[in-house]
């Protein structure tokens, strides 16, 4: 009994020390807090938000990114970057050029930066993700249906947690799981371990359906029966063609 009590006291002491350390780090981060600053430690961020929420505004995930994009003035940012380019050198200039390409593209079009954050996922037609009935009443279904189901289930679970007023830690964890299911739908295996199906086989995502010779574009949309075919290499012809011109040359049959 004494050993169990000593163990509990030791665990409580360690927990208290950890909380004190987190509180110290939170205070230190809060004192040097700047606009658009990133805090990579989630525990520290939660402590700052708990203790000093009335003095600053902060957020996590896609909602925070979208809120910042709404406030972004692309025209003013473009002018600011052009002024930086006149004086910048080396790595700073390279970084400014990369940023200017993106910001200027938004400034010259009607596109809004906040629209790149998706709030709804389009569902492809059933013909592209078929379900076939087999002998014995079983069904063979496309991998995309399983990936879509994961997204729907986690989204419904997140909605239920929000309606119940679940703690922020649980809600954030469910949002993270929803993001992982969306990542798997678009490109399975891109972020860490892929989602697998029966036989421990990685499920084919939307990108797998599109890319490669067996993909939707090259196999179904561009592939046509022809009378003759040939192989060629596209090369430049500086004598008669300009950079924006295209010319069909002879093919060997």
UniProtKB/TrEMBL annotation:
GO CC aspect terms: DNA-directed RNA polymerase complex
GO-annotated molecular function: DNA binding; DNA-directed RNA polymerase activity; uroporphyrinogen-III synthase activity
Cross-referenced SUPFAM superfamilies: beta and beta-prime subunits of DNA dependent RNA-polymerase (SSF64484)
EC number of the protein: 2.7.7.6
UniProtKB keywords: DNA-directed RNA polymerase, Nucleotidyltransferase, Transcription, Transferase
Top EC class, one word: transferase
Swiss-Prot/TrEMBL catalytic activity: RNA(n) + a ribonucleoside 5'-triphosphate = RNA(n+1) + diphosphate
Stored SMART domains: RPOLA_N (SM00663)
Residue stretches making up the RNA polymerase N-terminal domain: 114-252
Alphabetized Gene3D superfamilies for the sequence: 2.40.40.20, 3.40.50.10090
GO biological process: DNA-templated transcription; tetrapyrrole biosynthetic process
Protein name: DNA-directed RNA polymerase
